[in-house]
Write a structure and sequence with these properties.
The structure holds two protein chains of two kinds.
Chain A lengths: L1 H11 L5 E3 L3 H8 L5 E8 L2 H11 L7 E9 L2 E11 L6 E8 L4 E10 L3 H9 L15 H8 L6 H6 L4 H25 L5
Antiparallel strand pairs in A: 1-6, 2-3, 3-4, 4-5, 5-6
Helix pairs in contact in A: 4-7, 5-7
Chain B lengths: L9 H28 L4 H8 L12 E6 L2 H9 L7 H27 L5 H27 L5 H28 L2 H6 L1
Helix pairs in contact in B: 1-6, 2-6, 4-5, 5-6
The chains are: A alpha+beta, B mainly alpha.
């Protein structure tokens, strides 16, 4: 009976609510602490480019638009960041991926989870995996194709499986997916359309 | 009448009371969450379930830049509508419709013991089962036919609440409030 009641309660919660783990403004300040001004670069993908991205990552932005935020200190660009949504059967999570001025990953933060995934995501983050992305560089062309096909997790997802629970390990893979998407999008579309 | 709630063992009556109380608690929180993430008006429900209008992809990739004040990061974020996309709606429908059926069935079993006329019995059972149908039909039609169908989802939600309230009140009256002689006469 208890299980039935619990199932009934869960049933009524049929919208999967998003939980903000880090406000976007705080994530921006953490990832690009020296930036004093920002510009948003909206990249509206053509059909062939959207197809290329989809072929590589099995993903594309919902509205066909990638948005990067470039941080500046004075006139010098100090880095950029983007927010990537990763859909899972347990609801979406959002990953903020920051790049330094040389194009390497500076810092990664998970900014959103859901009521259901929050505990797993926090466990995944506590494993220290986010620090492992710092310094990753996508390169261009063929390198990015390789990035799109392999796990970015240092040592691979397997390395973390022993450290965290099964669902947290699954969340690690989703975070990895978010970083991959950011890295490939950055290399293919942000760098090549740099102003 | 298949059975009479009034004549049941007090422990069974208590079980039914606890079940209805728990459903009531769940409905309250369900309503609260709908208020937070979807809303009670057809317009807000439509914003949650309708597919965003897709603009045609440009012939070549285009870049636009604009200044982004720090305050705009969160302003843009909090303004984001909670969007239930098709994949999530498939998942919601798959997981929740069967459980809505189970809840409607349990409440219908309670209805059978209320001593109602067949007409009222049919009507209430139909109300309980049609509510989730309306709810999810509204969501799907809003997504793929017209945002106007959001009214079905709102109607379904209120029908669910109405059905539960009627059953709970009648059951409480039948089990605990009616004087003993009247119970035996019904």
């Amino acid at each position: 009976m208890n299980k039935l009641i619990l199932a009934a309660v869960l049933t009524l919660l049929h919208i999967t609510p998003v939980v903000v783990l880090i406000k976007r403004e705080d994530a921006v300040k953490t990832i690009l602490p020296t930036a004093t001004a920002f510009t948003a670069r909206e990249i509206h993908l053509s059909g062939p480019d959207a197809h290329r991205l989809h072929e590589a990552l099995d993903w594309g932005p919902d509205d066909g638009r990638l948005t990067f935020y470039t941080g500046r200190s004075g006139t010098a660009a100090v880095g950029s960041l983007t927010f990537v949504r990763v859909d899972t059967p347990h609801g979406p999570l959002e990953v903020a991926v920051g790049f330094d001025a040389e194009g390497a990953v500076a810092r990664v933060e998970v900014t959103k989870a859901t009521v259901e995934t929050k505990a797993w995501v926090l466990e995944a983050v506590r494993s220290g995996v986010l620090d492992g992305y710092a310094g990753l560089k996508g390169g261009t062309g063929a390198d990015l194709q390789a990035v799109a096909r392999t796990s970015l997790l240092p040592g691979g997802a397997e390395r973390y499986r022993g450290k965290v629970g099964q669902m947290a390990a699954y969340m690690l893979e989703q975070i990895d997916k978010g970083v991959q998407r950011a890295l490939v999008s950055y290399g293919w579309f942000y760098r090549t359309n740099a102003s | 009448m298949p059975y009479d709630l009034a004549r049941l063992d007090r422990r069974v009556k208590w079980l039914v009371t606890c079940l209805l109380g728990t459903f009531g608690l769940a409905y309250l929180f369900g309503g609260w969450m709908v208020a937070l993430y979807a809303g009670f008006t057809p317009a807000r429900v439509a914003r949650t379930y309708a597919e965003p209008t897709l603009t045609a992809a440009p012939e070549t990739t285009m870049v636009m830049e604009h200044a982004m004040p720090m305050s705009a990061f969160d302003a843009a974020d909090t303004a984001e509508v909670h969007l239930v996309d098709t994949k999530l709606l498939v998942q919601d429908t798959h997981v929740h419709v069967p459980m809505y059926g189970v809840i409607a069935a349990l409440l219908s079993v309670v209805i059978l013991g209320l001593g109602l006329s067949p007409g009222w019995g049919f009507g209430l059972i139909t109300l309980l089962f049609s509510a989730p149908w309306l709810d999810f039909a509204g969501m799907w039609l809003t997504k793929f036919a017209s945002p106007r169908f959001a009214v079905l989802t709102v109607a379904g939600g209120f029908a669910m609440g109405l059905g539960y309230t009627i059953v709970a009140l009648l059951a409480m009256r039948r089990m605990w409030l009616l004087p003993a002689p009247e119970r035996t006469n019904q």
